Amino acid sequence: MGFEGTKNSGACSSSHSLVDPTSPFLPPHPPAAPLSSQPKTFANVFIAIVGAGVLGLPYTFMRTGWAAGAALLAAVAVLTVHCMLLLVRTRRRLDLDRDFSKIASFGDLGLAVAGPSGRAAVDAMIVLSQTGFCVGYLIFISNTLAHLLQISSNLSPFLAPKALCIWAMLPFQLGLNSIKSLTLLAPLSIFADVVDLGAMGVVLGEDVVAFLAHRPPLRAVAGPSVLLYGAGVAIYAFEGIGMVLPLEAEAADKSKFGKTLGLSMFLIALLYGLFGVFGYLAFGDDTRDIITTNMGTGVVTVLVQLGLCINLFFTFPVMMHPVYEVVERWFCGKRYCAWLRWLLVVAVSLVAMLVPNFADFLSLVGSSVCVVLGFVLPAAFHLKVFGLELGWGGVAADTAIVALGIALAVSGTVSSLTGIFYSVQK
């Protein structure tokens, strides 16, 4: 949602070069920006994490069972906080050792820890994750509009109801994504945050009413075969690791950043759990992959759905901005290139037309790139910088996270792709 537009525009791989600040050729430092208080840091973490993935949680709980889904959410939240703090500790150690503070982003950290290959790994994961988020946005918008407009079905994936909506949006997205500076679009993210929270409140209210009207049969735990699917969606929902270094750098009291981050993630996990459980309680086995399509056709419901679509539509170019930064650096020497941006927008749109299910796609992105970006790379970087100083327990913990992340990435990706191909063939 709009949250991710804010968060991931800062997830770009590298916005600052790693330069020795004692160089006499550097220009004078600009006045330092005011640092964030704990309440502001708390709010920024909340905004950076909560996104479109929450809309797929009720469907995920339907498939995994409400108890299994809640347990997966809690486990992913704890591991995500731990890996975020690993990045913070790694950056602090490098700043202390090298006596400069120019590690401003995840990509900068990758360059400092592992050289060009480290930056390339972060670059690749950021491009894949950001484009994955944007594909999810287009799927949500097009499915919602097709549901509201009752567009007739067509067998061709490029002429299906959601594809027609994507084709209609494409010229406008090409124009929006041609804008060099996204400053004019930035205020929309604040509006998006308010709409997102309001929409979640409306959906929760509708869930309670629906549950009280008819109480469908529920299951607490489904078979183990769907746990990988649930883990993928949960990881997607908590993805925000690209913003943890900028947020920590802006915190006024850095000694309390870990507690603030932990409290934020606890409340987000609680909100996610309630949203997923209540959505499943309300509709049971009839829960759809986008929970808003389970709601009625009242004026408030339609306005909420349209508001979410409008916000995601304008968040799309903000989300793509880190991709343009990386790709233009790769192919155009950091120069602006309109045709390359258009090519990427068209590619993302075509992928969105071919993906049949919103929640299945969330699981695929979460199981693949988000696992590597959120778990594997932070633990690997931490292990490389600290080494045996961690003690055997610390080394074992980092190694276990890397191994778990790789196992989840491989098995979860295979499982998600199998589910997507099965949906296509049905």
Automatic annotation (TrEMBL):
Major location (coarse): membrane
Residues that span the membrane, as ranges: 42-61, 67-88, 124-146, 182-205, 226-245, 265-283, 295-319, 339-355, 362-381, 401-424
Domain Amino acid transporter transmembrane stretches: 37-415
Membrane topology per record: Multi-pass membrane protein
Pfam hit, one: Aa_trans
Keyword flag Membrane: yes
GO molecular function: L-amino acid transmembrane transporter activity
Gene Ontology annotations for the cellular component aspect, listed alphabetically: vacuolar membrane
Keyword set, alphabetical order: Amino-acid transport, Membrane, Transmembrane, Transmembrane helix, Transport
Entry-linked InterPro entries: AA_transpt_TM
Location within or outside the cell: Membrane
Name this polypeptide is given: Amino acid transporter AVT3B
